[in-house]
Specification:
Layout lengths: L2 E7 L7 H14 L5 E8 L1 H12 L7 E5 L9 E9 H10 L4 H16 L12 H12 L7
Parallel strand pairs: 1-2, 2-4
Antiparallel strand pairs: 3-4
Helix pairs in contact: 1-4, 3-4, 4-5
């Protein structure tokens, strides 16, 4: 069983924790991951920009950051890490890519999980294997609406 915690900082608590947890559990099940603990922080651009600058030396907001831990089980539990999502940036991307907010939020949740699992990409090209995998998961695990 996976454990997922959702927190908010500098944004209104949207009361979507249960939907995010259900969706993330569906994604983890799809990629055959069990006994993970993940923390998700939903925040604004200022928080994620500070983190992006501190850890990636990029002084701009981004949509999602992942901070993975060692994927070594301790008493059968894998403390996988943290996913930080800028709700402001996700809303902006939703508008600019002309996709529903729900879809874009699901996309960044999958993206964060894949990074925690050790996947990476060099560009945002549709040719990137990680991004292709992300989109296939999004199609297969659409599930109930989050927002």
């Amino acid at each position: 069983m996976n454990t997922i915690e959702v927190n908010y900082q500098n944004v209104i608590n949207l009361d979507i924790d249960a939907a995010i947890i259900r969706f993330c559990n569906d994604v983890l099940k799809k990629i055959e991951i069990i006994n993970w603990e993940i923390s998700i922080l939903i925040c604004d651009n200022s928080i994620i920009q500070d983190l992006n600058n501190k850890y990636r030396s990029i002084d701009l907001p981004t949509d999602v950051l992942s901070f993975n831990q060692d994927l070594v089980p301790v008493d059968g539990i894998v403390y996988a890490g943290d996913i930080v999502i800028s709700l402001e940036r996700v809303k902006d991307h939703s508008k600019s890519f002309n996709v529903p907010l729900d879809e874009e939020l699901k996309r960044v949740l999958i993206h964060g999980i894949l990074h925690l699992n050790g996947m990476d990409h060099l560009t945002n090209s549709k040719e990137e294997k990680m991004l292709q995998f992300q989109e296939s998961i999004l199609e297969e695990v659409s599930g109930a609406r989050i927002v």
